Amino acid sequence: MRRALLFCAAIAFAIACGDDITEPIPDRTVATPPIAFATTTTEDGLSISTDKDDYQPGDTVHFTGSGWQPGDVLDIVLTDDPLTHDPLTWSVSVGEDGMFHDTTYVVNEGDLNVKFTLVATSRATGRSLTVQFTDAELVTAELTGTVNDVTVTQGSTANFTISLSATGAIKCVATAASPATAKVHTVFSLSGTGVLSSGTFSALFNFFGGTPISGPNCGITWTGAPTAYTAAASLSAAATTPVGNYTITLRSSAGNVVLTNPAGSGGNLADDIATTITVHVVAPANVAPNAPATLAQFRSNGTTAIPVGGATNETSVVLKGAVSDPDAGNTVKLQVEVRPVGTAFTNTMTAESALLASGSTASVTVSSLVNGTSYHWQARAVDNSGAVSAWVSFGGNTETDADFLVDTDAPGVTINQAAAQADPTNASPINFTVVFSKPVSNFATGDVTLSGTAGATTATVTGSGTTYNVAVSGMTTDGTVIATIAAGVASDAAGNDNVASTSTDNTVTYDNTPPTVTIDQAAGQADPTNASPINFTVVFSETVSNFVTGDVTFIETVAAG
């Protein structure tokens, strides 16, 4: 009988010395643990039960039936497999309660490792019912524990323990070399469906005589209660073995028994009925994905990089990272947490990518960012089983520093004549001062628009950041020089283009023609006169500002005679 739970009892030995070996009579008076009855029940309630599902030779089999027609007679036919005797037949009577009890059959000594089939047929209705039970095996092999299950991980080997039990009788011939010990060696094998590999393992049963034996022809007969042994075994599954349940068998082939020292002379310890083992092939335990690598930040097009601490003029950014997983076949996604600088991380994702093959670069778009706000961010990897990596902060800077700034404000700009610029002037160049509302990096010569009547041609730009000087030259005639800046000629670090310039005084008069002058006696001046002063009128062709006393030359003349 197969038992998942084995127990040890005292071993009794019968020792007989002499030239002949007497056929042993096994001692079968061994207590057994309670087990479920072997029962067969039909759909309409007919049933037959046995008091055990497995018997020792010499045991009486107790049959109980119920649900039969009161007063009926049942014809019983009992057969065994393998066949040890002809089928046995007898009849039983059914009581008024529809039940019967029968103890006709006693298991024979030769019925070891036999499966019995009993068929009961009603004489009244012709209905038949079948029940099966067995006689004990001499050797049983079961997995240690209560359930014949083994779990093995793909690509690995599961080691487990087989519990072995030997009962029955073995007779040996003692030798002078080891007169008091009999060893029975049985080799077991595990066989399955072809997707699992295993090796054979051996179980060595040792039986000891209670009294030293002398003489070469002493017969030792071992009988006794179940004796438990254990043996190590293993099963392997390839990495490609599909996850699922498989059935294998554990058995020792008949005739695969070796008796050593003393030499065997009879008996059988073969495990003739295979044990069924369920093998569960499972995937390896999921390992957390690797932390994301090569973190990077981009504008919304996903290709224009934003440097650490840089700015963008959009309210969406694309954050990227390489994701990978040590588990073959796993897919991985990137999760990011984006917070304003000054707001601590909570390790809660803001957005995530789709699941991708291990080794991919994942992209996450983060939208609805606020203008004028600096942000920092971190990322982690998550696999398709939900396992997560550690969070990794981007930038390598402190969390009080910005990873990027959202700035959608266009820079304003003013242009006016320089503080020291004379107006009007006959000098070249004529200087203007340009001031942007925020630093720009691409304002250069050619970005200033010139107009006015003086025909100026060139505006040379110098400076950086927010403040620049524009030196205008190439005037071809007297007139005005006007400087302006069109929209979109310069941009800030976020990529915002400037708006058109405004001015309070962006016009300078250029005058490179000398003024002419006339001087004549003033109207009303008597000529000749003996009065002083004598008045003259000076008229310039244009306004002058520095004509003063001392600037007039006098020429004196004396009349003749």
* Number of extended strands: 41
Mean of pLDDT:
78
Which structural class matches the secondary elements?
mainly beta
Beta-strand portion reads 35-45%
Please state the overall shape, judged from the principal axes of the Cα atoms. rod-shaped
Question: Which regions are unreliable across 5 or more consecutive residues at pLDDT < 50?
Answer: 1-37, 178-182, 206-226, 254-268
Evaluate the radius of gyration.
Answer: 56 Å
Count of DSSP H/I helices? 0
What percent of residues adopt helix (DSSP H or I)? under 10%
Distance between the termini: 176 Å
Query: Describe the biggest sheet?
Result: 7 strands, mixed
Element layout with pairings:
Blueprint (H helix, E strand, L loop, with lengths): L10 E6 L22 E3 L5 E4 L3 E2 L7 E4 L6 E9 L6 E6 L6 E3 L12 E8 L5 E8 L3 E5 L5 E5 L2 E11 L3 E4 L7 E11 L4 E3 L2 E8 L10 E6 L2 E11 L6 E8 L5 E4 L2 E5 L7 E8 L10 E6 L11 E3 L4 E6 L8 E10 L10 E2 L3 E2 L3 E6 L7 E10 L8 E2 L10 E3 L6 E5 L12 E11 L7 E4 L6 E16 L5 E7 L21 E4 L6 E5 L14 E5 L21
Parallel strand pairs: 4-10, 12-23, 25-33
Antiparallel strand pairs: 1-18, 2-3, 3-5, 5-8, 6-7, 6-9, 9-10, 11-13, 13-19, 14-18, 14-22, 15-17, 15-20, 15-21, 16-19, 20-23, 24-26, 26-30, 27-28, 27-29, 27-31, 31-32, 31-33, 34-35, 35-37, 36-38, 38-39, 40-41
